[in-house]
Amino acid sequence: MSGDSVTKSDQTRKNIDTVPALRRAVTIMDLVAASGDGLTAAEITRHLALPKSTAHGQLNVLTELGLLVRTADGTFRLGPHLMRWADGFLSQMDIVALFREYFASDSALEGYTITLTVLDRDEVVYISCRNSDKPLGHTFRIGMRLPAPFTATGKMLLSRLNDDQLNALFNAHFPAPMTAASVQNLAELKQELATIRERHFSIDNGQIHAAMTCVGAAIYDHSGRAVAGIATSFLSSEAGAGLIDILGEKMRNAALALSRQCGYQG
User: Fold this and answer.
1) Are the C-beta atoms of residues 33 and 9 closer than 8 Å to each other?
2) CA–CA distance from 45 to each of 3, 57, 59 (Å)?
3) Which of 9, 84, 90, 159 is most buried when burial is the number of CB atoms within 10 A of its CB?
């Protein structure tokens, strides 16, 4: 057997041997992350049914790399090196690019206007949109702001806030209604938000434009925080209960797919 063949064979064997070690390392990291309070080496060994020598060797390497830290009480916790990876992931995450890419290839909502917004105190800001060819009587523009209580995305994002946060936003001033259907006050808004939390999608039933209905859902990031909202818009004359439920489910599915790309695990 030639020297080159031996070298290649040895390298292949090393690669094969490394894969289980990498899997064990990830399993250990997941276990420590889920523990909350940290785990001792003995607890990790017992939970994963690992040989002591294997577990200790793995823990030593993970600690050396800064992926785990050993505290004064002997427990292992997640280490600072993970933040470099997290920061790198977050810097690559562009919600607008994800939105455009997803809806460029999505056929389930083809023909519908789709918007992407973020919450800025008591307003939503439109940061991307895909306008359809169908006339709605209302044109969405990037940079446009609307009162959050009246829009589908705004209602969805506000539904993730607690009463204290809602009171801070709207106790002193509630926006003037845009149509006769617009929610009139904070008490009415809170009733709507309670329904949204149960249904998991939101409805603007002509509250920003009388002839237009919108259905929205929330996009969540890696921490479980609602970071943006998406909505589809269509003529109110088309808005039967069946269509709203169908589009509500489609928007939830689209929002979940985008959330997964943002690192959401829920």
Assistant:
1) no
2) 40, 11, 10
3) 159
